[in-house]
Design brief:
mainly beta; 6-stranded mixed beta sheet; 5-stranded antiparallel beta sheet; 2 helices; 13 strands; 9% helix; globular
Amino acid sequence: MKGDFFDSCTCEVSCPCNFNSIPTGNHCQGLVAVHVNDGKYGDTKLDGLNVVLVADLGEGVIWKGGWTAGVIMDEKANPSQRDALQTIMTGQAGGAPAMIASLISKMVGLEFAPISFHYDRNGWGVSIGDKVNVETEAVKDAKGNITQIQYAPVIETGTGPITPGKARSSKINAFGFQWDLSGKSSKHEPVDWKGP
């Protein structure tokens, strides 16, 4: 599976969680969006599909687990694609998703909805009706070069580089969570996943 991953959270730019540090304010909340450009599970093609995880990651270093999360999957996925995405994202197919899934202690819902995703090197975003609306700009230096972080201690996708960004707008209203994360961290990572 190849594609794009980005998050939007309560941390300041750049997210300290990639350095095994406590999140800004010692409590992380936000979302993760995954877009599949090219992928399959067995014979099931997954190209063009999206998955969004909305989560309260709790206090302290987030990698200790204890997350409370809900998942929104692309409603355009057919039944076999839905089964494949659930298998991958719940960690049953191994790889980086298994690491993320192992941190979730409470699931509060699974929904299917139209998901609109976009990415280019200057910014990225996702929208799901009135539930999620995120628009982000990549961080750049004074010459306009896009900032990237190589070889961070923890990379959610297992691959890099990390491109830090700042959410121009980030509003989440899903699974009982209501957050405005505008102006906070939103970073992009490439997805390049293989099963065991």
